[in-house]
Structures are given as structure tokens and as C-alpha cells.
């Protein structure tokens, strides 16, 4: 059974600017979605986004967070700073950060702790790459990512999400089928129960990301263990994103 309204999150990556903020805000503002909707623009636009969406229910979040609290870490942004400027969530361990910026399961764990302590909802991204998929290693990869990033968290009264994003589906137009996603989400739920205990696992929403479009959103969300969507490319078209949110 679904625990709460689906969560649909836009990940703009290194895209967008003032124009996209204005058109995106215009396309989601004053619409009433049944889904909970979040947008993660690049850091520099977070404050503007928060201001524009001040009187709405739309959440604003970041695409990353520092594993450090403060100090001599040039270029970093802490969880406390993100909270202060109005973020409510942050993505952690996106595959692009794992591949290109050397993030690993241990840094994800620290970042999740920092986010939780500072009142941000972490969205931990996990998923196998093409080669691992071809070799049938999906569950092994997820097992490692989840068991290393999630132990010993203080989750009482806090929210945590997992985004299953098979790397072979990100930005490729080749989304996983709804049945494939359901099977993997069921496995993730099972491992969450093992790591966090059943009660805490029940509260964790599991999102799917990877070439989500308005055409496949409904069938993905119809799956019993799909609690929401993480949308990359399609979220850069404000009308398209608003349609996905409406479908959800
Ligand atoms: C992502 O990178 O988080 C993502 C889901 O991308 P896309 O929707 O473009 O596949």
C-alpha cells in the first residue's frame, strides 16, 4: 500500500538559468497537484526559487550537499546552509556524482547524516550501470549501496527517500519497464527492512528515475512499490514536467 502522496522531483543538473526558473515557477505555481512536487535547481538559483515558490507547496532542494559541516573546503555547500536558504531536501549520491566526482558509499553515508541532522530530507540515489545490469548484478550493487550508506541512522521523526536510477536509463530515453522497476523496488524495500527495521522502512519512499516522461509516468506510478519519480531531462521543459506532476 502507498504510504503517502507520490513525490515527483525535478533534477535540473547543470542546466537552467533565470529564464527557466521563471517559466518553471509559472507552470507549477497555483496548480494543485495530488502529488508532492520538488525542484532541485543548481545551487545559485535555490534562493530565487524559494522566494518565487514561497506561498506554494512546492519543495525546493539541492542536487548535492557537502559531507563537511564547515571550514576550509573551497567550493562546498553545507547542509546547514542549504536549510538556511530554504531547502527541504537534497539529492545524495547521484550516479553522475559517483562517476565523475568520486562519490562513494561512505561519503553518501556521511552526507545523509549531515542532511538529517540539519532537517533536510535526503534522497539517496542508487542503481547499477549498463555492464552490471548485463551481468545480472543489479541486486548485488544495490545491496552494497544500501548497506553501506544507510546503517546507524537516527531516523526518528525524519524523512528519507531512495531513488532507484539505473544508470543505463538515465538520459538515454531507454527507461526501465514498470515491471522491472517494481521488482527492483520490492528488493530495495526488503533490504530497507533489513537495515532500518520494518517500521522505519515503511516510512521510506522509493522513487524511480531514468528517462521518465509523461508517456511512462502513469504506468510506473501504478506499481505498488513505486512511491514517486525523479525526473531529469523532461523537467527542463516546464510544461512537460507539470504534466508529469498532474499525472502523478
Ligand atoms: C536523473 O539524472 O536524475 C534523471 C532521472 O535523468 P533523466 O530523467 O534525464 O533520465
TrEMBL record:
Identify the residues that bind substrate. 11-13, 171, 211, 232-233
Q: Which HAMAP family does this one have?
A: TIM_B
Where does this one sit in the cell?
Answer: Cytoplasm
Q: Give the Enzyme Commission number.
A: 5.3.1.1
Q: Which InterPro entries match?
A: Aldolase_TIM, TIM_sf, TrioseP_Isoase_bac/euk, Triosephosphate_isomerase, Triosephosphate_isomerase_AS
Keyword field: Cytoplasm, Gluconeogenesis, Glycolysis, Isomerase
Q: Quote one Gene Ontology molecular function term.
A: triose-phosphate isomerase activity
What NCBIfam families does UniProt report for this protein, alphabetically? tim
Q: What is its main location?
A: cytoplasm
Its domain of life reads Bacteria
Catalytic residues (UniProt):
94, 165
Family that this chain belongs to: Belongs to the triosephosphate isomerase family.
Its ancestry begins with: Bacteria, Pseudomonadati, Pseudomonadota, Gammaproteobacteria, Cellvibrionales
**Entry's PROSITE patterns?**
TIM_1, TIM_2
Give the record's subunit note: Homodimer.
Q: Which Pfam families match?
A: TIM (PF00121)
This protein is called Triosephosphate isomerase
Its biological function? Involved in the gluconeogenesis. Catalyzes stereospecifically the conversion of dihydroxyacetone phosphate (DHAP) to D-glyceraldehyde-3-phosphate (G3P).
Its UniProt entry gives the catalysed reaction(s) as: D-glyceraldehyde 3-phosphate = dihydroxyacetone phosphate
Which pathway does it take part in?
A: Carbohydrate degradation; glycolysis; D-glyceraldehyde 3-phosphate from glycerone phosphate: step 1/1; Carbohydrate metabolism; erythritol degradation; Carbohydrate biosynthesis; gluconeogenesis
